Fold:
Amino acid sequence: MQIDRGGHQPDALRLAWAGRETVGPVLDAVKQGGKVEITLPQSLHHALFRRLHPGPDTGVAEIVDHRGGPELAETLATLAGLDALGELVEALAGAGYRLHVVSPAPVLSLLPPEAA
Structure:
């Protein structure tokens, strides 16, 4: 797992998704009210798009820019390889976090209430 304290979100903990190995550091950051930016595997882009934009293929560019609450983590946890995100839902909800996922270079940002 890679950890980097710089990145797109100012003062965000940046992590590369490593499944359950990622959950501990994220929970620690949430307990401290910190911003977290998780780089998801590139191979998940199409699955992310289809999960967040269900329905017939309309031929539009597959761009993901979706915001939500902890229920977004719950939705993403239904994708193969992201099931450990489900372990974060309760902590994110309790702390009032908002989520933002963008792709084709998949990044999931976890934002505390004052940053959302």
